[in-house]
Amino acid sequence: xxYPIHLYGHPVLRKVATPISKDxxxxxxFIADMFETMYKSEDGIGLAAPQVxxxxxxxIIDLTILADDDASFSGFKKVFINxxxxxxxxxxxxxxxxxxxxxxINETVTxxxxxxxxxxxENFVAHDEVYEGFAARxxxxxxxxxxxxxxxxxxSPIRRQLIKSKxxxxxxxxxxxxxxxxxx
Length: 184
Ligand code: NI
Prior knowledge:
alpha+beta; Peptide Deformylase; 5-stranded antiparallel sheet; two-stranded parallel sheet; 29% strand; binds nickel (II) ion
């Protein structure tokens, strides 16, 4: 099943998502549907449950499409449940990001280059791992979603002013978005 992507302005994107337990109803189907929804959208490499309207601490990341450029991404298809970033380490790095919930907007975001994260996977096996570089960036972006944040929250006030009318259009549903979506 393909979920509609909930767009900027929808209140579900502003909620701090709640942890789930192993007996969360339909968990494996939900995860399969999350991947299906992400693959149906353009350029999706990560998707968080709040983006499909469900405020739980779950996000998925698939970087295998980038494995030709970086072999470390081969097999990088992961589910992060009940994640907590416990350390943000390393240098500040600025790079452009986009988000399926904010179509048509790409902005530079400064993030730490390295993180340590604790989570359980789709089998509720616990992990405590360090990621760096692009993987750390994508994880922090998706993690923001389960904390009720989106990437444009941390851009400069000047940039925010410049994209204000585009954001207003998204909130009003005036948006050119090819994938199934839902506005507030
Ligand atoms: Ni996003």
